[in-house]
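ok trying again, last paste got cut off:
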Amino acid sequence: MKEEKLSVSVLENVQTSGAGYDVLRYIGLADLLGTEKDTIIYFMGKNMARKFAITTLGDVIYFFDQMGWGKLELMKEKRNRVLFSLLADSVAQRLHTKIKTDFLMEAGFLAEAMQQLKEIECECTVKTHDRIGKVEFTVFYTE
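nice, full thing came through this time. structure:
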């Protein structure tokens, strides 16, 4: 039986304060998942993208915004990869907190969303620029 995908617009009705979400994500899940945390969080992001009807890059950008992940921008597209940047006050705050943060869920989501849009296998890497409060994602086409 095929599961119906959710519209990204359902996120308009979900409200959260960022601190509670961040504590659960970066402390609670880290303790629960242990040494496999990074891999599991990345694949959680990929699985999350499969649950939503992603039909345009605008849907991906909207999703990032509604999730409170930050402002996602397409920076450069090459033959075998796409470079995105993520900026926002919340991103800078996450990079400067004493809690160990990461952007693996976002990377997994972005890899799967681009895979849906481009219809080609994708993986995503993350590079943080702590000093300027910016994150770069590189989505690679793996086929």
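cool. The longest helix spans residues 18-33. DSSP finds five helices and four strands in the chain.
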